[in-house]
Design goal:
repeat; EF_hand_pair_protein_CML-like; about 70 residues; mainly alpha; Recoverin, domain 1; EF_Hand_1_Ca_BS; 4 helices
């Protein structure tokens, strides 16, 4: 299990509306800000893949898991 506190600051920057979750639209905005084009469909696919509890958005804990897997 990843330590969510390691990723909290990054998560909060992505969570623009401050609701405690990353939506597909917020992920899309992040990728574009980083200079990476991403379609709305691909953003939804990434959220679905990271969304452990299937609520349609990424929580801090899910984000930490995604980031720790990506770092390997």
């Amino acid at each position: 299990m990843a330590d969510a506190n390691e990723y909290k600051a990054t998560f909060e920057m992505v969570d623009v509306d401050g609701d405690g979750y990353i939506s597909p639209a917020e992920l899309e905005n992040l990728m574009r800000a980083l200079g990476q084009e991403i379609s709305s469909t691909r953003a939804i696919e990434v959220v679905v893949a990271a969304d452990g509890n299937r609520d349609g958005k990424i929580s801090l804990e899910e984000f930490a898991e995604l980031m720790s897997r990506s770092a390997l």
